[in-house]
Amino acid sequence: MEKHITSKTIGKLNQNSDFSDWWESTEIKIPFLDNRKLKITFMDFEPEYDKKFIEEADQALTNFLKMNIEDRNLISELAYQNCMDFLDLIEYDEADDSLRKIQSTDEIWDFIYPEKIYISRRYKNDKDVYISIACNCDWEQEHGLQLVFRQGKKLTRISSQDGHLTEADAYAKPDSQDKLLSEF
Question: Which residues make beta-bridge pairs with 114?
Fold first, then answer.
């Protein structure tokens, strides 16, 4: 029997057949991504153990779905810097010339391909709800790119896809030493 949960913000989410604590929506238009349609997955969620998760996820989604292209362009510099930092670390490859020739940081979005959106609770420190956009990108084909928003309000991490919601968690440092997270 198929199990599902209901979000007041995005509707019915079905339980993933491989991971019982993952719940997937149908494709939803994402204004932040120029209305690209993506599935949203609630991750690591067991309804019987986290009674507030859906309510908090709905609030984060409400916040996130209010953001648009202008909001995305406000973080273009961070996405561009992620790209340039990566290119500075690797050996020169002619295939990366189009990235090196970017004239405006907003052009970086032409090289980023959002694939999935995940919502999960951070189990360390703030125990808040975070929205993570998993993307492929032209500069980091192996590990891609992730954009993480605390409460769906503000970017608090941009990095390769490593499964961590914060730099603090990824590098075992205090939240106060995590630049983007501490600005929240």
Answer: 135
* The pair of three-digit structure tokens given for residue 169, joined into one six-digit string: 């968690």
User: pLDDT, tens digit, for every residue of 115-135?
Assistant: 999 999 999 899 999 999 999
Q: Give the strand pairing for 145-150 and 154-159.
A: antiparallel
| Nearest of 109, 29, 118, 113 to residue 65 by alpha carbon | 29
Beta strands in 122-184 (DSSP E): 129-137, 145-150, 154-159
Contacts of 106 (CB under 8 A, 6+ apart): 73, 76
Contacts of 168 (CB under 8 A, 6+ apart): 124, 125, 174, 175, 177, 178, 181
Query: What are the distances in angstroms from CA 54 to CA 99, 153, 170?
Result: 39, 17, 25
pLDDT band at 1 (very low <50, low <70, confident <90, very high): low
Contacts of 29 (CB under 8 A, 6+ apart): 35, 36, 37
Cα 57 to Cα 11: distance, rounded to the nearest angstrom: 12
Question: Which has the higher per-residue pLDDT, 172 or 2?
Answer: 172
Single out the residue of 114, 107, 117, 115 nearest to residue 83, CA to CA: 107
